[in-house]
Amino acid sequence: MSELETRAVTDFVRSRKDSFLCFLSIHSYGQMLLIPYGHPNYTAPNYDELMMVGQGATEAIWKVHRTNYTVGTPPDVLYPITGSATDWARMQGIPLTYIIELRDNGTYRFELPEDQIQPTCEEAYRGVLYIITYAHDKTFNGAVANTAVTLSGILLAAGVTGATLR
């Protein structure tokens, strides 16, 4: 919690952790949906569910512009990582936590061409909607509920995407 913004988000999540259905951290780049944990010796207790929902989200993403995303833990599809916000959120008891690594696959790295920004947003929207819908339906059995789905907006506004939670 080295940054004020990170501390603010941490305090916010901790004070309401039982109310969160999912936790998403959006980054660029890599076209991946990463699930906990970043350490190769630890597996999330709901690994199978995280993978199933992740596969559904990547299929939803693919249907928009036929862009392939890979699902898995960081050690399995990228490399081991430490201090991720999603690992921390999963350890807080939030069941569905994902890092979404947006386009591209490395050609442009962090400087995505302007003509790919809108398609990337459209894809990400469908993937996020899939995860949120799953979390909602699992929790409320399809009943109409007033749920907060702006966490990713809060995280982005707070600048958490590049910070480390400890």
From TrEMBL:
Pfam families: Peptidase_M14. Its cofactor is Zn(2+). One of its GO terms (molecular function) is metallocarboxypeptidase activity. Residues 1-135 form the Peptidase M14 domain. It comes from the Eukaryota. The keyword Zinc-finger does not apply. GO terms for biological process: proteolysis. The active site is at E101 (proton donor/acceptor). One of its GO terms (cellular component) is extracellular space. The keyword Zinc applies. Keywords: Carboxypeptidase, Hydrolase, Metal-binding, Metalloprotease, Protease, Signal, Zinc. PANTHER family: CARBOXYPEPTIDASE O, PROTEASE FAMILY M14 CARBOXYPEPTIDASE A,B. Belongs to the peptidase M14 family. This is Carboxypeptidase O-like.
